[in-house]
Amino acid sequence: HVQLVESGGGSVQAGGSLRLSCAASGNAVSRHCMGWFRQAPGKEREGVAALGSDARARYADSVKGRFTISQDNAKNTLYLQMNNLKFEDTDMYYCAADLQARCLYSDTVELAHRGQGTQVTVS
């Protein structure tokens, strides 16, 4: 079982940057498919980025070239560096994880474990 706690959200002007963190307890993050999805109230979840146990990163087209997913195995922490933020990036961002081989960004919306979310607001 994995417990996930996100941090790092906030308010930023368009063009700015934020780095989200996801601290995991339990099984090592390096063994999991881990990623980020986002969701606004009343809207469907949208997969953003994923990082598999093969260390391969995958991104939604809407964030490719602007967001970078990474992990620090020693700290058991997943990160999402978000640069050149746009108004449409405004959302609640959730960290998610599961022990599974397939790890596409679109899979993140259905991973078994997720955190409580952190709000990102771009104005």
Topology record:
Blueprint: E1 2-7, E2 10-12, E3 18-26, E4 33-39, E5 46-51, E6 57-59, E7 67-72, E8 77-82, E9 91-98, E10 113-114, E11 118-122
Parallel strand pairs: 2-11
Antiparallel strand pairs: 1-3, 3-8, 4-5, 4-9, 5-6, 7-8, 9-10, 9-11
Fold and architecture overview:
It is a single chain. This protein is mainly beta. The chain contains no helices and eleven strands. The strands form two sheets. Strands 2, 4, 5, 6, 9, 10 and 11 form a seven-stranded mixed sheet that branches. The chain has a four-stranded antiparallel sheet with strand order 1-3-8-7, with no helix packed on it. It starts with a strand and ends with a strand. The mean pLDDT is 94.
Short summary:
By secondary structure, the protein is mostly beta strands.
